[in-house]
Target: DUF2288 domain-containing protein
Amino acid sequence: MATLSPQDFKRASVNLETARIAWKELQRFFASGAAFSVDADLDLVEVAFQISEDNKAQVAQWLESGQVARVSDAQALAWFEADADVWAVVVRPYVLVQRA
Model:
């Protein structure tokens, strides 16, 4: 039986904390500025893991490229009007979302 490294264990834990949820259920996080959108080209779990590990260099790169960004008003409205589901994971104090 293989033993997981601490990093692999933490990634697995983050994966278990992801959930598909209606965007409408996350409105309070959006309103407080805590909702961040993760580009579809990125792995939501990996982004959450890197944020939880305080990997400032990687997170800064994603923010600078726009691959991770606060959910814009336009995006929030589009998801709301489409009654969209998103994948979400909490990395306190943020909620990371990715279109399902």
In short: The chain has one domain: 20-99. Residues 20-99 form one domain. The longest strand covers residues 85-91. The chain is about 45% helix and 25% strand.
